[in-house]
Amino acid sequence: MNKGLLIVVSGPSGCGKGTILAEVLKSGNFYYSVSATTRAPRPGEVDGVNYSFLTKEKFEELINNDGMLEHAFYCGNYYGTPKEQVMKNLENGKDVILEIEVQGALKVMETCPEAVFVFIMPPSVKELRRRLNKRGTESEDVIEKRIAQAISEIKLANKYNYIMVNGELEKAIADLISIINAEKMTRKRAEYLINEVLENA
Amino acid sequence: MNKGLLIVVSGPSGCGKGTILAEVLKSGNFYYSVSATTRAPRPGEVDGVNYSFLTKEKFEELINNDGMLEHAFYCGNYYGTPKEQVMKNLENGKDVILEIEVQGALKVMETCPEAVFVFIMPPSVKELRRRLNKRGTESEDVIEKRIAQAISEIKLANKYNYIMVNGELEKAIADLISIINAEKMTRKRAEYLINEVLENA
């Protein structure tokens, strides 16, 4: 049996990755790994759906027991990816989608170089600012910090295998599905098929 | 302006590439380069649509004037890709799809390494034989020659960037569209977008 494909998606806060991922997850048979964090839930966020909201103590316990695929400390909080379920699903041939902050994704590039890394950008920094303001959950000051963070993250997009722009939601959803679909047909992932086709002569 | 993407599609006779390409061409804004050949048209084939049917003299004249992107001699006939329109369309930013026999595609890999090469396989050699028999245009003897040719071609699929299987037509059409779409988002083709996004701060 083939191992599943590990798809790592990053993008600055406000790029729309959450909305895109929700739709892509509906479109196929994926395991979505919910990130863990020690930050407080935003209004409407549900534990175990948007994030696993952990205490600082519990999070550090996981780090110390090698239970995190990656973790990062960002704006005063831990963010990370619990390892166990990801590995189990990949071994069982199931594709796994991870949404990881850039610093975390860069670490996974080192430990899981066979994964496919996708960076989602907003169409422009101007549009990103508009989206963050529209969300209305954060102060002007926090938004400007997020913009600065976004700019430094976007500068790292060239470390990723694929770079996509979320200008129009429907197109962005189709784009991410295309990437996952096409990646499975790349030579390195599909060349085992050659023998399969030839065997049944 | 960005140059267009050059997409080179190969696959053994009977793999269904013609049908897949016809649908993919309808789905987007491509320039489809009609191959030239000196072989006789099969029933229903139209000059300038399926192939440009050329005399041996005319074909050799093009070869001698460097007017062919590639050409090959196969089963007693020339097959090749006239160069001029391909280059003109790419320069104008238009994506170009070429359907080329394997020997020709291998040559284009050398001269146009920035192109994307897609190999379409039948689900099995058994199924290929069934499809060629069903077509009913060729003798048993010719079909067995085509099968032998197909097997040696399929063994070269691992030279291509992408390998896809045409088991079910609708899926194969979507697969080829995914490849073209995803390829444009690969880092090397999309990283120019990073500056575009950052510029408009």
Structure report:
- The structure is a homodimer of 201-residue chains.
- Chain A is α/β, with parallel strands linked by helices.
- Helix content of chain A is 45%, strand content 20%.
- The first copy, chain A, is built from nine helices and nine strands.
- Chain A has helices at 17-27, 56-64, 84-91, 102-111, 125-135, 140-154, 169-183, 187-190, 192-199; strands at 6-10, 30-33, 36-37, 52-53, 68-74, 77-82, 95-99, 116-121, 162-165.
- Chain A has a five-stranded parallel sheet, with helices on both faces. In chain A, strands 4-3-6-5 form a four-stranded mixed sheet.
- In chain A, α5 (125-135) runs antiparallel to α6.
- The relative contact order of chain A is 0.20.
- The mean pLDDT of chain A is 93.
For this entry, give a set of tags.
homodimer, 201 residues, alpha/beta, five-stranded parallel beta sheet, four-stranded mixed beta sheet, globular
In quaternary terms, these chains amount to homodimer
Intertermini distance of chain A: 22 Å
H-E order of chain A: EHEEEHEEHEHEHHEHHH
Pair with the most extensive interface?
A-B, 39 and 39 residues
Read across the widest sheet of chain A, the strand sequence of neighbours is 2-7-1-8-9
Beta-strand content bin of chain A: 15-25%
Uncertain regions of chain A: pLDDT < 50 for 5+ in a row? none
| Dominant shape of chain A | globular
What is the share of helical residues of chain A?
40-55%
What does the largest sheet of chain A look like? 5 strands, parallel
Overall mean confidence score, pLDDT of chain A: 93
* Structural class determined from secondary elements of chain A: alpha/beta
Q: What is the strand tally of chain A?
A: 9
Q: Radius of gyration of chain A in whole Å, from Cα? A: 18 Å
Number of helices of chain A: 9
